[in-house]
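Key result, reporting period 2: structure in, sequence out.
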């Protein structure tokens, strides 16, 4: 992508807001639109491909492409995570499985970017990055649902517990300069996804209802990212493009 956000405080907040909205959007597609956990995935895949094609061929450089990709992947991860229930696969199997797959993907991502130094606090984004993102989102969906409905945390408890966890990891990451280390980075993302699952379920299933909850979390996401990430001039380049020169 031509323009990528720096890994800073507003990035992590945006990722949490995106996680809440993406969780609700996934439920909206499967439950409210009655597409189920799998029938909506081809539409999400097509929309994801469209984002990549438009971004690649557009002279309009904007952070919107990155965040739109995050939302689509998060919604798909929600449906994939919920889809394990359709096959009666227990959390005792699905959570370790997804954790193992995320570990493998992170190792592959790290190997692919070993000789690509991070500059300006902008993490390298490639195909392996997006594979890790969907795996972390699916793992977060499973952990969030298990904590809320099986372990008895409740949706608010899940939001608070994993929210405190990723805040602690952020604090330690800033102190020890670990945030851009792949294993640490994806650990934080998984915790954010877990907390976002609890928050999304609380807002859309216990407070507003699914249609209104999805609309509200979507509006908050759009307003927040618009406030934090403004459209850049056509001459803007991300650090990856600059390194290619």
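The corresponding designed sequence is given below.
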């Amino acid at each position: 992508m031509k323009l990528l956000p720096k890994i800073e405080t507003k990035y992590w907040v945006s990722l949490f807001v995106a996680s809440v909205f993406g969780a609700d959007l996934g439920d909206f597609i499967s439950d409210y639109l009655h597409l189920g956990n799998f029938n909506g995935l081809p539409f999400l895949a097509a929309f994801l491909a469209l984002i990549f094609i438009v971004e690649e061929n557009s002279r309009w450089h904007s952070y919107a492409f990155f965040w739109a990709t995050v939302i689509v992947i998060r919604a798909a991860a929600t449906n994939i995570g919920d889809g394990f229930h359709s096959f009666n696969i227990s959390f005792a199997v699905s959570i370790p499985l997804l954790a193992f797959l995320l570990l493998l993907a992170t190792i592959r991502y790290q190997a692919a970017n070993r000789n690509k130094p991070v500059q300006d606090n902008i993490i390298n984004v490639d195909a392996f990055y997006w594979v890790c993102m969907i795996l972390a989102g699916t793992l977060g969906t499973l952990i969030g649902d298990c904590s809320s409905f099986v372990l008895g945390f409740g949706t608010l408890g899940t939001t608070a517990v994993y929210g405190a966890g990723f805040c602690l990891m952020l604090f330690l990451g800033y102190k020890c300069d670990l945030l851009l280390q792949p294993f640490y980075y994806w650990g934080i993302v998984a915790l954010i996804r877990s907390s976002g699952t609890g928050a999304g379920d609380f807002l859309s299933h216990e407070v507003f209802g699914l249609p209104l909850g999805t609309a509200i979390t979507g509006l908050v996401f759009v307003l927040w990212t618009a406030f934090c990430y403004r459209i850049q001039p056509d001459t803007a380049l991300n650090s990856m493009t600059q390194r290619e020169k």
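The chain has one domain: 9-232+236-240. The chain has ten helices and no strands. This case is discussed further under Risks and Mitigation.
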